[in-house]
Specification:
With 154 residues, this protein is an alpha+beta fold. It folds into two domains: 114 residues, SH3 type barrels; 32 residues. Strand 3 and strand 4 form a beta hairpin. The longest helix is centred in the last third of the chain and has 29 residues. It is extended, with a radius of gyration of 22 Å.
Length: 154
């Protein structure tokens, strides 16, 4: 029975994006919100204070932000259909798995040492930029060829 559950969880995790979140990350959560017939996207940006269900098919992250001197926490199911995407903004060096102690600190007291996000996202960005650059260069070449052909036709 346990093997079946483990296999099911692995298959469900394989379908979802493989982005790892850790406590101490600052993330933007893009949520789909339906209001009547309209649908919009709302962004919730905050600090990940807990990650639960890492082996499960439905992991959750707890994101906390402070707005107008009031702390707001949201438990976000990572694989939910109402979550468009979760974007990593910053990554901090922390020494705990759960940062519940942040709740008692002020914003200034909870300052952390953040890592450079460029190093974290290096794997994804160059591929996208090179593809865009190649497509752009092909378009420029096509336009140049078209202009030359137009001049020859005149």
């Amino acid at each position: 029975m346990e093997k079946k559950i483990i296999e099911f969880n692995k298959s469900q995790r394989a379908l979802k994006s493989e982005q790892e979140f850790h406590s101490g990350d600052v993330v933007k959560v893009f949520l789909r919100i339906k209001e009547g017939a309209k649908e919009r996207t709302q962004i919730f940006e905050g600090l990940v204070i807990a990650v639960k269900g890492g082996q499960s098919s439905s992991p959750t992250i707890t994101v906390r932000k402070v707005t107008h001197d009031v702390g707001v926490e949201m438990i976000v199911p990572v694989g939910s259909k109402n979550v468009e995407k979760i974007e990593l903004v910053k990554r901090a060096k922390v020494r705990r798995a759960k940062l519940y102690y942040i709740r008692t600190l002020t914003t200034k007291q909870s300052r952390m040492k953040y890592k450079d996000i460029k190093d974290v996202n290096k794997k994804d960005k160059p591929k996208v930029e090179t593809v865009k650059a190649e497509v752009a260069s092909e378009k420029v070449e096509e336009k140049a060829v078209e202009k030359v052909e137009e001049k020859k036709a005149e």
